[in-house]
Amino acid sequence: MLRKLKTFQALPSEQKRLFLQAYRLLGTMRFAILTRKFKSLVSSLEMHREGYKQPPLTEGEMATAHQIGWAVRKAAQFTPWKSTCLVQVLAAQRMLYQRGIAGAFYLGATNSTNGDQQTLSAHAWLKCDQDFITGEPGHEQFIVVSTFSWL
Length: 151
Known about the structure:
Layout: H1 2-10, H2 13-35, H3 38-41, E1 46-48, H4 59-76, H5 85-98, E2 103-114, E3 117-128, E4 131-134, E5 143-150
Antiparallel strand pairs: 1-5, 2-3, 2-5, 3-4
């Protein structure tokens, strides 16, 4: 624990700030998922059922998006609650939106058969331009069901 605290203290102040904001938003989004309907969580976003081409971002915007992705993924490792892929996507989306950075998040689903049982699995991931910000591992196993964009 002491080593983790020292590692945190050694971070540049901007990374500390992003980490703390991500941690707070992960809690906020986890609570929102448990208490609100999904439709209300995405009501301010544009939904796309077909393929969506994201607008290109500047180098500075991409650098900020990657820093936000790092902060969200790292903070999710330390939350005492479940910071699932959807929680991470919603937290990162809010942080990007606050900074005026466009992006899109994807909801995917897949069916798997285990013996006589079929299981539906879901995953969420977020991209800015063509780069993954959160949720990249395993995304290729899922078929995109919905895409939500902002800005």
